[in-house]
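Page 37, top half.
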Amino acid sequence: MRSRLAPGDNVLSEVAGIRIDLPVNVLSENPPWLALLIKKAIAGDTLAFDQIMIHSQQKVMALSWRMLGNDADARDASQEVFLRVYKYLGRFKQDQDFFAWLYRITVNVCHDIAKKRQHHSGPATSDMFSEVTLEVPAQQEGADEVLIAGQQRQLIASAMAMLPTKERAAILLRDVEGLPTEEVARILKSSSTTVRSQISSARRKIKLHCERYLRTKGAVTP
């Protein structure tokens, strides 16, 4: 059983005086029903593969959105992810965490798409991430609170857009998806030390970006 993030572990939940509650979606071991679907899909059962897609497409789309920052690229990424899953499912080992394996494919696909996009149109901008990178739960009441929530999203989004792809992937998997550092390292095919360094760097950049903004524009707090 994987442990959840302890309070305070998620730097994105409170940056430079701005508190944003983020979902914690810790991966679990493959449940029996999923293991059975995988076994059937490997054997050629297309209906079983369709069920796997239904149960995992939301995870793939969410991570793709947060990695790439726009709907069109996220949908392209999701389509490519499931094409690769279909192609390589026979290599999946039943003792692996399926969703960790799926996240690894998703990160690789998003990395490829981001590289192509940067080659053709330049690096990501904050506008790409304004709606989909992080979401604030709709708990506020009134126009002022909704405006503040939108400003908070935009501030974090602009900071996320500045991160290198690897740092963005590391902090999204750790602080948004809620995965342990060791799991993130396996997904990114890296070492825990490298992942900790990437997360630390990403957190520092996000914090500095937010502090710099708040110094120049004035703090916006709930």
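Page 37, bottom half:
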Amino acid sequence: MVISVQTSQDSVVEAQAIAFFKRSEGNWQSRRRYYTLANDETQEVVSDITVQFLTGDNEELLTLGERHELTEPMEFGAKVTRESAYLSPSRKPSVGETVFGIRENVMYRDRGFATPKPVTALYRFRDDDTMTLRTEYGGSSFEEELKLIGTSYRTRQTIISRAGEEIMIGQYLEKRV
């Protein structure tokens, strides 16, 4: 059994996360580019995204805690739904959703970028507008930065590495709609 003692630093980071998630709530259009470094391939995607803030009593957040075998519930989180269209190379449109929960400096996800299994990420804030995440699983690491720009824009960047070598970079510009 893991016993966790929350520090005042954890409380500050959680407060930043609450504010960040609440400011992110709403509908966004995301224009993304994924660069595969080994073969210099570029993939372009446009997605309609909805971010919903979740309180600790939300059923999906409680289920997420159970999937991660947490003994204490998470106080808040977010649900992100997306509908994506691939511009190049052309692929079938895709839809999906992800549930995130926060406790202390850990973000719990119901799935990862490249796996349907639950994953965790360590997160921190560079400032009130910039959240960074680091996730590791399956021999890969994912470093992500999300930045709120005013009330209408967000940028995101993801760097995916395997065996210490960068293999893909994802860059996103998201506009509130």
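Margin note: The chain has two helices and ten strands.
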